[in-house]
């Protein structure tokens, strides 16, 4: 690639000081925390190759090398300038839209923009809702969706409107494409192994859950027992509701009656209370 090159970045650091840059399992930097020593030095999309001359094959190698890197970490990275600019634009989520995100460990967040092209590629996007989340369940090869979304992405909003129902998300998507020719999403993307596994299971689930609270397993069991018992239940021999010409009008007369109420002192005399 023409814009890709290996560069060495020197970062002054004190022992135990956090770098503030988060790599994924391929050692590509996906997040840089504001106000940390890596800000302005490392860039999103940089792929770490070495730290102080030591090769890094995975995150364990990287963090182990950093632990002994003070007073200066010389980090060799593979950087694609064009890709870095695109990624930085995508991870910059406007303040008003960032407020709705409940950031979770193991996920990366970005702003995905889908631009409609007249007589161009088809949309090629499938969505489903699962546990109050709208998930990307289908991305067709060569489609518009493939340029900015991946399977398992959670669409947090559509053009600034939070969504938890696939029908609402679809209607907003169509409306924005028709009116503006483009649509943007704040996307929560699985990044860790656990997060990717959860997304895989969610997509494999055929249960199209409505956006509501799911019943607990014990409640489901009781409901299931009642459903099975219903066909076997016999109706009463005589209806409590009389019908036809012989039906009499019933009037309720208020009377003072004495009712015996069972209590803990059954059979014992109660003391009078003055």
UniProtKB/TrEMBL annotation:
CDD domains: PDZ_canonical
Superkingdom of source: Eukaryota
GO biological process: male meiosis chromosome segregation
SUPFAM superfamilies per UniProt: PDZ domain-like
Gene3D superfamilies, alphabetized: 2.30.42.10
Domain (PDZ) ranges: 8-81, 111-165
GO cellular component: chromatin
Protein name: PDZ domain-containing protein
Species per Swiss-Prot/TrEMBL record: Caenorhabditis elegans
Gene that encodes the chain: smz-1
């Amino acid at each position: 690639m023409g814009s890709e090159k290996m560069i060495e970045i020197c970062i002054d650091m004190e022992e135990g000081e956090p770098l503030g840059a988060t790599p994924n399992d391929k050692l590509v930097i996906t997040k840089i925390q504001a106000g940390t020593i890596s800000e302005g030095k490392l860039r999103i999309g940089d792929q770490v190759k070495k730290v102080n001359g030591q090769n890094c094959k995975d995150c364990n190698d990287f963090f182990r090398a950093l632990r002994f890197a003070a007073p200066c970490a010389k980090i060799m990275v593979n950087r694609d300038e064009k890709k870095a600019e695109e990624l930085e634009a995508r991870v910059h989520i406007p303040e008003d839209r960032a407020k709705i995100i409940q950031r979770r460990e193991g996920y990366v967040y970005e702003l995905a923009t889908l631009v409609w092209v007249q007589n161009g590629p088809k949309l090629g996007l499938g969505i489903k809702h699962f546990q109050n989340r709208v998930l990307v369940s289908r991305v067709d090869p060569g489609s518009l969706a493939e340029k900015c979304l991946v399977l398992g992405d959670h669409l947090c909003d559509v053009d600034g409107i939070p969504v938890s129902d696939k029908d609402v998300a679809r209607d907003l998507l169509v409306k924005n494409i028709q009116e503006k020719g483009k649509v943007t999403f704040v996307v929560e993307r699985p990044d860790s192994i656990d997060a990717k596994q959860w997304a895989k299971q969610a997509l494999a689930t055929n249960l199209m859950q409505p956006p509501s609270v799911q019943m607990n397993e014990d409640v489901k069991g009781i409901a299931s027992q009642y459903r099975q018992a219903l066909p076997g239940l016999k109706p009463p021999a005589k209806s409590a509701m009389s019908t036809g010409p012989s039906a009499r009008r019933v009037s309720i007369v208020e009377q003072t009656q004495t009712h015996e109420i069972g209590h803990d002192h059954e059979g014992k005399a109660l003391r009078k209370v003055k």
